[in-house]
Design a protein that fits this description.
The chain has about 425 residues and is mostly helical. Among the domains are: about 90 residues, no CATH class; about 100 residues, no CATH class. About 65% of the residues lie in helices and about 0% in strands. The protein is built from 23 helices and 2 strands. A two-stranded antiparallel sheet has the order 1-2. A hairpin with a 2-residue loop joins strand 1 and strand 2. Helix 5 packs parallel to helix 7 and helix 14 runs parallel beside helix 16. The termini are far apart. The N terminus and C terminus are likely disordered. InterPro entries: Ankyrin_rpt, Ankyrin_rpt-contain_sf. It comes from Hondaea fermentalgiana.
Length: about 425
Amino acid sequence: MGFFVRTIPLRKRRAKLHKHLIELMQRCASGDPAGVQSAVKKIDPFDKLSGNARELETMVQNFVETAVRMACSSRQLAVLRPLCEASHWTFEVQVGEDRRSFCDRILDVVLVCALSHVNIAGVRLVLSYEDWRPRAHHQFILVACRCNKVDIIQELLGDKRMRGVANQKQWIAAALESARNMRMESLRAIVNAKVLPDNSVGEGAIVMSACAKGQTGLVSELLADPNMPVKTLGLGALHIAASKGHVETMRILLDDARIRPESDGWKALDSAAVGGHLLATVELLERMRKSGSAQAARTRALRAASAWPRSYLAMEAILDAEDHRGGELDTLGLECMARVCGWDLDTPDISAIQASGLVRRFAESALSQDFVDLLGPDLVLWAIRAEDVELLQLLLAHDAVQLYGRDAEDALSSACASETTYTESEYG
């Protein structure tokens, strides 16, 4: 005699489950803890379902996670507790590449929502469940750092599950994230907690952030720390300060004997020149002069700066530096003039007068025939477009500047167009 096992069709099971889930959502929305607890108990344990349970599990996961987010956004901890304590939900769900128990997944979602809404009570609720194991992912820590609330970060730091060796990379990522976004309170909390495998990582992040923001007081304070690996971090910090044009911060770094800008060929000069920071460029040039450095750094910086219109003044400072006359730097200066010819006169970063001054420097130099042949016609056209008669006369009076054939036709056409524009604008 056999036994007949009655199997409920999946369609009916889904309909019944959907009804209970809708009830759960309604109870969460109304803030009814007892109603939520009753609805949770009505949802069957999924380990007793048939092979089609995966579809139902996914449906439950979506509804319950939505209910959790609703409760978190309204800060209803009493509603959250029945969801967090549904121990009869023993099935697992797929989270990224991992399989996690649904109970742990609910706590994950509660923690992320609590962090997003800066809800320290919700954070404490999750941490109070000793069986919960945080997912091996830095999402929690990053969200905490983004909210920049030290008390919440300290709650996480006080939990041994968050301070384990497996989470060191996550804390490093959080420290760097805080540094990039100038969230100094979060960064200090992480560094002071000694959770980083090498505390210099956090200190370095603070130094970089302080230099980018021009916080001279903080930079001085950090450099005074005997444990600060200045030799490792100093050059990078100097580059950042130069790129932002923070002269006082640069001076503090340059005055530290442990930082040797010549060890990387004064590349900080490139950063200052490309950024168009005149005072920072002049400061570095003066330091280079005192240290007796060669022209190589100025040559490289000039080449880097020549691609950016806003770097005009920095280029002028480099060309005006002492002991640069003749040789490679003058030759490179001619290349920079070619860049000037390609700049748009309407660009707000550089005026026609400034550009004309740079081209005039070219015209007054001891020009080699190769460069004159290459750039002479372009410079004449540029002077016509700029309506700089004095510069045009200077160029045409130069013995080496000769216009032939097509170059002469282009210059004549450009001049006629310029004259036509002038006449129309002057006389209507």
